[in-house]
């Protein structure tokens, strides 16, 4: 009897998790009008917004919309080739001895900030660059 209940519970859990969550029509229309051919799309219902996670052009993105379908913010993860050229040039000039490991771009409706992870043989650093190209060293760690 216990085994039957356990099997039934597992099947119920698997069935419930297989249904995809979709937001309201306004949010879905906004998303589809902005993003072309996204892959691996997953929606999440948050208390104050709808969040969607997806991949587009080899860039992992998380985007938030309010219930009316208005953009609230996004976080994108990518490599150096997707950085704006002006920021890439400043970064390469100032940190010419380091390689760019990855970029986290955080956008709101008002601003865009780039958190760029750099490395050399001895350490990791994170540099924050705002939309105007102003740089700030955020953290530095020594490699083991």
Characterization of this structure:
With 144 residues, this protein is an alpha+beta fold. Helices cover 26% and strands 44% of the residues. Strands 1-2-3-4-5-6-7-8 form an 8-stranded antiparallel β-sheet, with no helix packed on it. A hairpin with a 2-residue loop joins strand 2 (50-56) and strand 3. The protein is elongated and about 50 Å long.
Quick recap:
By secondary structure, the chain is α+β, with helices and mostly antiparallel strands. 26% of the residues lie in helices and 44% in strands.
Radius of gyration: 20 Å
- Low-confidence parts: 6-19
Which class best fits the helix and strand makeup? Answer: alpha+beta
Question: What does the largest sheet look like?
Answer: 8 strands, antiparallel
Rounded to the nearest angstrom, the distance between the terminal CA atoms is 54 Å
Question: What is the approximate shape?
Answer: elongated
Beta-strand proportion: 35-45%
The strand order across the widest sheet is 1-2-3-4-5-6-7-8
Total beta-strand segments: 8
Question: Which H/E pattern describes the elements?
Answer: HHEEEEHEEEE
- Average the pLDDT over all residues and give the rounded result: 88
